[in-house]
Amino acid sequence: MRRIIQWRWPIFVSLLVLTAALFLLAPNLSKQAEQAGSFQLPGDADSQRAADLLEQAGAGEETISLVFQLDQPLTEQAQQFIAGSVASLEKMDGPITDVMDPFESEEIKKQLISKDQKTVLVPVTVDGTQDEINRLADEIRAEVLPDDLTAYVTGEAIINNDVNKSSQEGLKRTELITVGLIFVLLLAVFRSIVTPLIPLAAVGFTYLLSQSLVAFFIDWFGFPVSNYTQIFLVAVLFGIGTDYCILLLSRYKEELQAGHSVEDSIVNTYKTAGRTLLVSGIAVFIGFSAIGFADFPIFKSAVGVAVGIAVLIVVLFTLVPFCMAVLREKLFWPSKKSVSHDDSKLWAWFSKLSVRRPLLSMLVVAVITVPLLFTYDGKLSFNTVDEIGSNYESVKGLDAIAEGFGSGDSLPVTVLISGKEDMATEETVPYLESISKDILKVDGVKSVRTLTRPTGEALDELYVDNQLGTLTDGLVDARDGLLQVQDGLADIQNGLTQAEGQIPSGSEAASGAEGLQQAASGIGQVNEQIGRISAGIEQSGNAEQAAAQLGAVQQQIGKISHEINAAAGELEGTAGQVGQLGGGLSQLAFGVGDANDGLAEIAQGLTKAAQTTRSMSQSKSVHDTGIYIPDGTLERKEFKDVLDRYTLNDEKTIKLEVVLSEDPYSPQAIDSIEEVKRAVKRASIDTPFEGATFAYSGISSVNSDLKDISSNDFSRTVIIMLASLFIVLTLLFRSVIMPLYMIGSLLLTYYTSVAAAELIFVNGLGYDGVSWAVPFFGFVMLVALGIDYSIFLLDRFREEARDGVSVQQAMSVSMAKMGTVIITAAIILAGTFGAMMPSGVLSLVQIATIVITGLLLYGLIVLPLLIPAVTVSFNQGVWWPFKRK
Description:
single chain, alpha+beta, Multidrug efflux transporter AcrB transmembrane fold, Alpha-Beta Plaits, five-stranded antiparallel β-sheet, four-stranded antiparallel β-sheet, 32 helices, elongated
């Protein structure tokens, strides 16, 4: 330290130049956080796999929506305004790839115009970066939306942008409020105009250096970043940096008042308070470094605070000694006295309870904390919209969709089924309907749209029972056709009989008469056979057998037609009336030919029906699903639009759109999507889709992944963080017992605080739960920062106990000496987090609530009552398994 004091000016100038250079050269941390996005999911998450599949298929587009909210049912004028907006959108350049006209067809009208006709949607498919999409949204607001109608632009990208914007605006407010609050508190504590400037200068240098280094690390090493990175850097560095400065300045004032020189006072300060600061700083550094073991990038992004803690320690050991050495006693001008170094009367009073009556002290802590623990349900909310409230246009648009169509219609879930080969075939599509039906059985699912139900309603013509009904109707028509042929042939038979009677006996045409008689007899036999075939169709419905029989009948009719033609030829060669009769027979022969053609058509229809029923009987999909799709059906023109909409990647990927009945952001939607995943997995067993890749996109799927990932990351990070702290504290305090109850007291404080936050925001204000990221960050902040205060107390206890006094006496002195410092530090740190309250971002407000509640509870109840009580209860065993020095 004496060497640092000696080289203080070169060190200060170097620090100043380094800070300015890095600040000017470093990338923009706010821009990096915005580009990273709100949700950065691991690659194995369902929703991330879905995003990758869509990107690979060239369908990584997003959909934003123009929402027109009308005061009355849709009028002709309003329709013209909306149609004009659609036309303007279609002419726009930029990331727009498709615009859906709500008036294009009756089917589309049902989907995009609400039942009361007061809400109209215009979905716009866009393919571009988040910046491009949001610039497009601004352009649409300025140039497309009509002034005469209430209209909003909304979509996931726009909502996320509003969240980012709100966070950045909140950060600016937090910075200003934090600086002002710290200055006022330090002014009250030290009663000096100069003293508050030292912590602000130290923390200011630290913050500028830290954010520059973190920004470089993001570019160089892919360091994790999110909106939380910069906000937590501000809150933690200003709060804990001020605490550490109070500790140093209080001890420095104490050393000066003891009559030591400025240099000796600085050296003594860093030998005592400096050691405490270093121990605390290492503990906090390890606490935030443990976050690096998280998998979730948003959680991981708080590891940037560890960089800030490392820089803070360097600054406190260089810049603060510089200020002490340069300003000397004037550092506390104009005050002659500092409140912060006086013994704490409050903690001295607490010590009478906790040191002398430890069991009663523990009981008091239990009475305050345990009832709150029993109220804690661990309810979480994944509603991004709650983060920014309902004043943003994107949220108003969502509310309008929910009011007009239902909450789930605003952001449906997309199920992707992907394989290496064509997934949309006549053999596989029937199983798609089975999966859809199983999804519909899930509570909270409103409808499913896919190849077999493009509008959300199943296509009846795909079902075998419907098709068999059609076949039955065809057989009835075939029977009716045979009856008509019978009637026609009967007429021809009568005509032949009459013609035969008109031929004179013994004439040269006698042989023709004999031919006519044979033809008439043949027609009679054919009619009898057709009658039997007709009866057989009616009784058995055996189309294949009937078609074969009709083939034989056709041959007979062909012979009869030949005989009639031959007879006609003979008669036409005679003169007179008999010759005229030959022309009439020719007409009868044509009638027989027409009857034969009719039988051919009927036989062809029966053959086709027989082939269809045979294919049905041999189809596995009919047995499994009750659905049959004839070959070639999917190649028809009318299926092209459906295939284009619900298949991707050359039909190797099929889409199902699942519309939920609940708000897509709600906990109920997350439960529903988890049930949908299980239903799809069950329904795909023993189907052509069993080996396919399933992925799920949409906000409900993202939130489902967030729930699983955040829960797993929370458990893993907590274990790593607490284990790391335990090892470090064991080495620093040379005790296993102290770290155990230090950590235990913080766990008690955390769960009491998060229970209090749940009571406020869930039971009181009616939110679904505390925001999903709040328990993680609340824990990290409270434990990593709260450990400081127990270190402050127990390190002073270790210092006092070295003189050989009793444990009780050492603890009483330590509490009196450190009480004011700890309470002041807790109030200041709570104040810096309190500056997050006006940010307008719900998760930050909730984190601040947990940290403020925890710090005040710890500083005023748990630390002065529980820690001393446990310490004196162990007595000399508190150093186990090591020995007291």
